[in-house]
Specification:
34% helix; 19% strand; globular
Length: 271
């Protein structure tokens, strides 16, 4: 796990995650101090705009869960929209994680949702949070969690995992900050197993002005992408997902879908 002998043995969740990486994925094994796998090897996968760069700052993880995320949720979902606790409930409802499931949390930040998923997956499951921000992942590792939880520093537009690896994939309040969100969506669908569930919380342009007008201005200033009302649901349908469902709240949307079970899913005992 480390270049030094003092690093100790690789934790089981880290080892299980290493085994899921695609052949040829650039891999820098984590030190004991880092506590996560880094497949970027120094490459910066955070976008160039102010809102994106903020995700890599040292200060944001310190206030993320208690201040930034609750305030951001109110801005995105409206004053009467779901609060943070309700967001967690919605995510778990969308993914309906069973004990033994493999779960991927894309844009996991400091792991506030990832830890919930790990508890739902139980000891036999594996939950991986992936993010491009070193500071966010450092906060996630410091917060601890269950033994079935691991983190990866990687690019959502080039997920380092094999095809059809995960029973559930979540991307909450992150897709609109990814530089190429449709490429990230391609990757999310690729790693989702047949019968797998997907849960998204993303932006949604609302109001009288065309999204091309408002979205371009917001993107240029902040790096945040405003998705059109049908953009994500249509994108999921085009990519072959079924049961696509959407719930609007303020300037946000909760979107869920499922990958068709076109083949018998491998039992967890056979994995």
């Amino acid at each position: 796990m480390s270049d030094s002998a003092s690093a100790g043995p690789t934790p089981p969740a880290i080892q299980a995650t290493l085994e899921l990486l695609r052949p040829g994925a650039a891999l820098h094994q984590p030190t004991a101090q880092a506590g996560y796998i880094d497949v970027l090897e120094g490459r910066d996968a955070i976008g160039p705009h102010p809102g994106q760069r903020l995700m890599g700052s040292r200060a944001l993880p310190l206030i993320y869960e208690r201040l930034w995320r609750p305030i951001g949720g109110r801005v995105l979902l409206g004053m009467i929209g779901p609060g943070t606790a309700e967001e967690h409930r919605i995510a778990l409802e969308m993914l309906y994680i069973s004990p033994g499931d493999r779960v991927l949390d894309v844009g996991c930040g400091p792991g506030n949702f990832t830890r919930d998923f790990a508890r739902a997956a139980d000891d036999d499951g594996l939950v991986i949070g992936i993010d491009a921000s070193q500071t966010m992942l450092a906060a996630a590792v410091e917060a601890g969690g269950t033994a079935n939880l691991a983190y990866v520093r990687g690019d959502a537009c080039a997920l380092p995992f094999g095809d059809e690896t995960f029973d559930a994939v979540c991307c909450f309040a992150a897709l609109y900050l990814i530089e190429e969100p449709m490429t990230a969506l391609d990757e999310i669908v690729r790693v989702l197993a047949p019968g797998g569930r997907l849960g998204l919380l993303a932006s949604c342009a609302r109001g009288p002005l065309p999204v091309d007008w408002t979205g371009s201005a917001v993107r240029a200033l902040t790096g945040i992408r405003l998705f059109g009302r049908e953009e994500l649901t249509s994108a999921l349908a085009v990519r072959g997902l079924t049961g696509v469902s959407r719930r609007l709240a303020g300037l946000g949307q909760f979107v869920s879908a499922q990958k068709p079970a076109t083949m018998d899913r491998t039992t967890k005992e056979e994995r």
